[in-house]
Amino acid sequence: MADASSSTSSTSNESISQESGQDLDPDTVRCLDMFTAYRNCISSRYQFRQYYIHGKFNDCKMERAILTSCFKWKAKKSQETKEIFLNNLAKRDEHKSYSNPVWKARTSPPRDW
Fold first, then answer.
1. Burial level of 18, CB count in 10 A (0-12/13-18/19+)?
2. pLDDT tens for each residue of 76-108
């Protein structure tokens, strides 16, 4: 079950990152991918993981802003809403943090185990 959800989220993240280019077409953008990212963010599993790693819950404001700007852009299809959507995607990309593991992964148990 965990493998399926992680592959789904990585697939949606890849498609979203491909869409963050400047030549977006409203007909090819899938707001469903943004909804999936938002739904994963607000899930209890993700929130507890964020609390365990960072000591606080994620408020998912960025994911929600991307989702709402996607819906607005799909509805209006104007240059202004496109710029808002692209700015939100750029903000998300610059705020991505890559996990820095605290411990080294073991290949075998300790000798005194």
1. exposed
2. 888 899 899 989 988 887 777 655 666 777 788
